[in-house]
Amino acid sequence: MGERRWQISLWYVLAAVFFLVLLYSYGVHEAPQEISYSQFKALLNAGKVTDLVLTPEEVQGRLTDLEVGQILSAEQVAHFRRWGQREMRFRAVRVEDPKLVELLEAKGVPFAGRTASTWLMNILSWVLSAALFIGIWLFVLRRLAGSGGPGGLMAVGRSRAKVYVESETKVTFADVAGIDEAKEELREIVEFLRTPERFRRLGGKIPKGVLLVGAPGTGKTLLARAVAGEAKVPFFSISGSEFVELFVGVGAARVRDLFEQAKQKAPCIVFIDELDALGKSRAINPLGTHDEREQTLNQLLVEMDGFDPNVGVIIMAATNRPEILDPALLRAGRFDRHVVLDRPDVRGREAILRVHTRNVKLGPDVDLQVVAQRTPGFVGADLANVVNEAALLAARRNREYVTMQDFDDAVDRIIAGLERKSRVMSPREKRIVAYHEAGHAVVASLLPNVDPVRKISIIPRGIGALGYTQQLPTEDRYLMTRSELENRLAVLLGGRVAEEMVFGDVSTGAQDDLQKATDIALAMVSRYGMSEALGLRTFESERRSLFLESAAASRRDYSEAKAAAIDAEVERILKLAHQRVRELLQAHRRELETVAEWLLEKEVLEGDQLRSLLEQCAAQREPRTAAGS
Length: 629
Known about the structure:
By secondary structure, this protein is an alpha/beta fold. The chain has 4 domains: 31-117, Signal recognition particle alu RNA binding heterodimer, srp9/1 (2-Layer Sandwich); 162-341, Rossmann fold (3-Layer(aba) Sandwich), CATH 3.40.50; 346-416, Helicase, Ruva Protein, domain 3 (Orthogonal Bundle), CATH 1.10.8; 427-626, Methane Monooxygenase Hydroxylase, Chain G, domain 1, CATH 1.20.58. The strands form 3 sheets. A 6-stranded mixed beta sheet has the order 6-8-9-10-7-11. It has helices at residues 2-28, 37-45, 74-83, 100-107, 119-145, 166-169, 180-194, 197-200, 220-231, 250-264, 291-306, 327-330, 346-356, 368-373, 380-396, 404-416, 427-446, 482-503, 511-526, 560-587, 589-602, 607-628; strands at 33-34, 49-54, 58-63, 89-93, 111-113, 162-164, 209-214, 235-239, 268-273, 313-319, 337-341, 453-457, 468-471, 604-606. The model is unreliable at 1-8, 147-157 and 625-629 (pLDDT under 50).
């Protein structure tokens, strides 16, 4: 605010100077009447001119009286009369006239010469130069200081943490759902901030640092703010990337400033989001480490060791990559308490949906338990997006409240993408897509221990999806057996095999299915030890990220012969799955044809309708089998 106030006062000064210049030019000296050079010569010949001043650009003088006949116009004469007899000044632009001086001497008119006055231009040029210099200087300082606030360059080392007081946090444990175990872990922190004497009396020390670990969107930041809201203490929030700056030493200075501010406002909570941006292990890429980042990390370690835990400053941090954090951050006395925020189960998802639908008008047919069952693997951020999308769809359809159909469409939109009914497929392409999706659905319905099919659609969605088959898990799964993985492989290959059987050719539509099938088969061999040929061994030397999908390959610590054996085993698993699916679909060709024809006619097939069609086909096959026997 101070910088803004100073800028406004500077512009006031410039405006005042300009006003004074104008006042001096037009107020102190009367404004001369502009006349033509021919009128000046006529007045001179008529003896009406006195006190003449000659400059290279113009001629200035006075009139003796206003008895000028037809020389001046009525408007010009009126101008002179308005100023009075004493102010009959005029000026004319000078033209090349070598005989002017002789004429003046002949008429006896006193005259004087004067150079062109440049004092106004000098003042303006000086003012403009000064303003330009000050403007450039302020711009440079602002660029150097970034968003450090007032203080110019000296503010670079200040902490950029946003401070939320009790009235601004407005988040409590009632706003957090689906992570009950994590909330219970943090209630102890709240109790310490509320009644620290209860712990100090027995000589106990609260953990200095609490590390929240979980997948993106699980509510790590929300939970940290809820702790501050429950304890009713100030909340410092900053991202790990905001410490590191272009200048060496700035990150360490910001860490020191952050802890100084926290000590002044104790008891309080300091929350560092995305800690991995700051606390990455110093052993990773030792030749390519960034000195500034290491200095900042070292300063953070020193500050966490330096302050008294009884002061009441709790350091909380969040990350979704705990495996790359520096071990010095995780030792006892620093971030020694780890709170894991896992993906919510079906009950947790229902609780999260109830939190996000507090201010949403729900229809009588909405069952949040069913919505929770249809969103396996969704985290809190995904469920909030589902509720928002459903509300937007209901508003777009001019409804008074959100219905179950809106939630179903919102889930489909988030999972498969936006419907693209404008994309027109040829009859041949539509037929291929119908049989492809029918192959997935029939295989998924015939195999045991497979998630039941909820919906099949051949309406294009998203960027490249021409159709999809959605399966709905009946329960949350945390383990997969080998037979279940083999069944999942069969479902993925069902679309490709259906195309081979019906059309005698294959299309590019199975690209994503083949990629997922290859990943599962490779994981069975290299990670899960499910290959009898290769034995009980894993072939990954680096630990994968717990919460993030990484496309980077692990470093190999096995021979080329072993790599060839892994490739051969993956191919064998995929070939067996392909053969199994082909035999299954050949035995149930009637079901495949029935489902595909329904899709070609209706475009969408619900799970209950699919099971009804399969039951009808099975009933038609049983009498024929009995007659044959």
